[in-house]
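Late entry, written up from scratch paper. The run itself happened at the end of the previous shift, but nothing got recorded in the book at the time, so transcribing now.
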Amino acid sequence: MVRIKGVEAGSRAFRAGIRSGDRLISINGHEIGDILDYRFFETERELRLLLEREGREYSLELVKPRYAGLGLEFDSYLMDRERSCRNKCVFCFIDQLPKGMRETLYFKDDDDRLSFLFGNYITLTNIDDREVERILEMHISPINISVHTMEPGLRCRMMGNRFAGESLRHLYRLAEGGIQLNCQIVLCPGLNDGGALDFTLKELCGLKGSLQSVACVPVGLTRYREGLYPLEPFDRESAGAALEIIEGWGERCKRERGARTVYASDELYILSGRELPPLEFYEDFPQIENGVGMLRDLEDGFLWALEEAGDVELEGPRHVTIPTGECGYDFLNKMLDVLRDRCHNLSIDLVPIKNEFFGGTVNVTGLLTGRDICAQLEGRELGDQVLIANNMLRSGEDVFLDDMTLLELSKSLGVPAARVGSSGADLLSALLNQSNPETTSHNPYEYQSWETDKS
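Output as recorded:
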């Protein structure tokens, strides 16, 4: 039974007399407990609703077009509490956060509903057989799973949960039921790389057509690891050895299935000192959100937009500064050289920013903070504008991970800052000072805040 917060004016529910404050008990005899139940069962053409108002049950019958919505709103999107993680993973990034950050950053979700609705990754330790049966009945697909290893004992050890190995049975059950699976492996040197990685990929590839993709990413280690499991970062040799295994299984899948399926993140290539694979290697970029092919995709969009732009010479000189993570600096600088060679009155300073806030081996752009950018750009000739990558900022809001705002950065540096959209075309537009709906520029003294959600 879930409380109805609002009823959309003019909707079928509104016309049927359902009110805010009523409670929805069931649809066509199916108890409604959360958003998945509601979305699945409201799709029918003929509906029998059981509701409660002021402690008394009442029923309604409705006829509507199939898949049309009822128009009900609830107290929260999931209609109940978000499920938190039960694990104590040795590599958990949240456990490595410093104190004093905003509260939402410390919440560990492990919710299969968020996996389907928003692409979050789940460990399967937070669901039971009944929940698996519901996923199969509703054919909720794809599901994103944090696997890490297919060796049950090692999985228990890595995830700090004695049920972590047993929960792998859910993965096999989902695969047997035809649910498409995207899998993630956080690689920790000396734990789940080497022979353990080879075994894991063998087991996953044995899932045949249900396995949609696998991303292998290196563990991220901050300087806040006191009292945590003693992990070591990847070096050139260990990253190269992991790549040999990953690419070997990718080639095998390509031969046997017609799709590569198994991929390494861009960071592993950079750590190993190897060139990133060509664009076609990544096929339809199934794991780009895990940093697999992200740099190649950015480069492709950038070069395509540059080709479409034709003559890119500016009317007058322009000088911009771009702070970036150390990880992708060399790749991005080489990409920007193409524009520098074509547009001689455009000066682009790409500045690698050392992540002092998190420290350790954290060197990706998306985890840079405002204070590190401010400290390391201070005193430099920054030119007309500082361009900030979209993934440095909170979703929908101009706020960095350390809660510094884009306005505060602009004021501290004395130069307008601009939020740049995620695509290569967005980057080119920002560099050429062209209007782009994904790019927001700010004068340090004129600023409008945006409403947003958590990052």
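The radius of gyration is 25 Å.
(Scratch paper discarded after transcription.)
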